[in-house]
Design a protein that fits this description.
Layout (H helix, E strand, L loop, with lengths): L18 H19 L3 H4 L28 E3 L4 E2 L9 E6 L7 H15 L8 E6 L7 H11 L4 E4 L2 H10 L4 E2 L6 E2 L2 E5 L5 E6 L4 H12 L2
Parallel strand pairs: 3-4, 4-5
Antiparallel strand pairs: 1-2, 1-5, 3-8, 6-7, 8-9
Helix pairs in contact: 3-6
Length: 220
C-alpha cells in the first residue's frame, strides 16, 4: 500500500487528498462573490438538514457539495466510534496528529476553549472530535495521554491507515509528506446531530465563533 500521508498520483482518486486546499480557495471565492453581488451570508447559512434546519449559522462557510461522510474509528479509550454516537448533538471535527508542531497546537487551544465554554463532558452535549493523520503512531493510548494533557473532554479517533485515508478523502483534507514532517490543511468542520456536515471554518476561527454556531445548531 502506498504511504497514506503521501500525495497519491495513481488511480482515479489521486486528487482527492488535495481537495481540502482547493476547497478553501473555492470557499473564499464564493464568499467574495456573495459580498460583491450583495448576497446575504446569513441566508446562505439556512441549509436543509435532518437536524438544525432552522439554525442561523453566522460564521464559516457552507461546505462544498459532496464533502463529509462516515467516520468509522476507535476512540482514545479503545471503544468503536461512529457518527451514531452523536445521538442528536452537534459536533466539531478537526484533523491533525499529536506530533504536529505547526497547525495543531493552536487547534488544541481552541478546542479546550470551546470545551470550557460548553461546560460539558463527553456525551453530555456537543462534542469535539479529533481524527489523527498519523494512525501508526497515534494509537488509543497515545491519544489518551495527549488529550488528558491538552484538552480533556475531547474525543480522539484513530484506526487503520485505510480508515484514516477514507476519512481524509471524504472530508477533503489536504496532506503532503509524512509524519513528523507532515503538512496538512487545517479546517474546522461542524456536524449536526445526524453527522451531516453543515459548516466549514478556517483554522483561525475563534472559539467564541465556533461556540456561537454550535449553540445555534444545538437549539434547533
Amino acid at each position: 500500500m502506498p504511504n497514506l500521508l503521501a500525495l497519491r498520483r495513481s488511480g482515479p482518486g489521486w486528487w482527492r487528498p488535495v481537495l481540502g486546499l482547493a476547497a478553501c480557495l473555492s470557499l473564499l471565492s464564493l464568499w467574495v462573490s456573495a459580498q460583491v453581488l450583495g448576497a446575504d451570508p446569513i441566508d446562505a447559512a439556512r441549509r436543509e438538514s435532518p437536524t438544525g434546519a432552522g439554525a442561523v449559522l453566522r460564521h464559516g462557510h457552507p461546505p462544498p457539495p459532496g464533502l463529509g461522510g462516515a467516520l468509522d474509528f476507535v476512540d482514545h479509550t479503545g471503544r468503536p466510534f461512529s457518527l451514531d454516537r452523536l445521538a442528536g448533538q452537534p459536533a466539531l471535527l478537526f484533523f491533525g496528529f499529536t506530533r504536529c508542531s505547526d497547525r495543531c497546537p493552536p487547534a488544541w487551544v481552541t478546542a479546550r476553549e470551546v470545551l470550557d465554554g460548553l461546560g460539558t463532558g463527553p456525551g453530555a452535549g456537543p462534542q469535539i472530535l479529533f481524527v489523527t493523520l498519523d494512525p501508526l503512531s497515534d494509537r488509543p493510548a497515545e491519544l489518551a495521554r495527549v488529550i488528558a494533557e491538552v484538552a480533556p473532554g475531547l474525543i480522539g479517533l484513530t484506526g487503520t491507515p485505510e480508515q484514516v485515508e477514507r476519512a481524509v478523502e471524504r472530508y477533503g483534507v489536504g496532506v503532503q509528506g509524512a509524519a513528523p514532517a507532515l503538512a496538512h490543511s487545517a479546517v474546522w468542520y461542524l456536524l449536526d446531530g445526524h453527522g451531516a456536515l453543515r459548516r466549514v471554518y478556517a483554522h483561525s476561527t475563534t472559539a467564541a465563533q465556533l461556540l456561537a454556531d454550535l449553540r445555534a445548531l444545538r437549539t434547533h
